[in-house]
Amino acid sequence: MVRIHTLNIEPAVVNSSCAWASDYEELRDLYDSPYTGAVITRTATFNGFSEDASNTVALAKSTVSSINSYGYSPHPLSKYLEWIYTILTTPMLDGSPPTKPVIISITASTPTVLTEMVENIQTLRKKLRASNQTPTAFVPDPATLVGIELNTSCPNIKDAPPPSYNFQFLLPHLDVLSSAFYADSTLTIGLKLPPYLYQTRFVEVVRFLHTYTREHVSRFLNPFAYLACTNTLGNCLLFAEDPLTNPSGTSADPERPSADSMETDDTPPPHPPSPSTTPSLFALPTPLGGLGGDALHPIALGNVYSFARLLAAHPDPAMRRIRIIGIGGVTSAAAAARMRQAGASVVGCATLLGREGVRAFEILAGHAES
């Protein structure tokens, strides 16, 4: 079992916030699986995100990789609060009360909206606490089963790059979460981060997070209990995969260019295909999107390793208590083991879930083959 502040996660495997954790049925299936230790919702906004046909996902054929153009959930936060209340107040099949945590992934464009969202989640937690007036060692306070994850890193929102690539822009939102935590230190808060590509970014994130440590009830606390590393890598391009034909409909030897394709010094540079005229070339209609799965795995491992080392060596004991949920290419039991070796306390997956359904977690446990 891994304890992340008030959340007990056993087994130490979760889904990451993704399109396959969008509605009640999907959340229910994830919750009922004995191979998940906690469930994380798809990222909710206050009013819901407007989706259209351009928001989709493509799964690679040769590897367990994916590319998606999804934004946030089309369901508003209020829906998730209803669904989570139902899940956490409905006895399990054996009649026992629910004990598995649910983490609500949220995002907001302004601190004011984020404040209202956090207040609504706290109202849910109070409602859950009121539903069980006699918590015991075996039946925990249900309010402690609900956590918050701020998604700071979706790469697919037009004209809104992930704020955590410039961490100081995120500070007003972190101020909101910090205030909520110090008003109620039973609240578990995590941050979903993007893939960082150079060392100064890791140092910067840790430095800013450290500023939120306070002495609280005779001990030093930090409001941020975990980091989820990483979200998908944005601005990636995959071509549509078809092993039988190429997009032109003609056969070609992939090992040898044709005479027409031979370049000379006078050959002008090729023009990239237009997404409006040749959409079938690309895996996504956008055509750029966020890359996940096997293709992201080495970058995700590097992010987990870098944060784990910085946190473990930090002089502040509150910072050393921050845990890491390793996400990115967790597509097999071996990949999950690599994440843990890199420093993750918990591992999470999305691409494998999209490919296999909840059976993905049996695969990660080594009880099924992909």
UniProtKB/TrEMBL annotation:
Its cofactor is FMN. One of its GO terms (molecular function) is dihydroorotate dehydrogenase activity. It comes from the Eukaryota. GO terms for cellular component: cytoplasm. One of its GO terms (biological process) is 'de novo' pyrimidine nucleobase biosynthetic process. Residues 247-283 are annotated as: Disordered. Residues 288-362 form the Dihydroorotate dehydrogenase catalytic domain. Residues 267-276 have a biased composition (Pro residues). InterPro entries: Aldolase_TIM, DHO_dehydrogenase, Dihydro_DH_chainA_dom2, Dihydroorotate_DH_cat. This is Dihydroorotate dehydrogenase catalytic domain-containing protein.
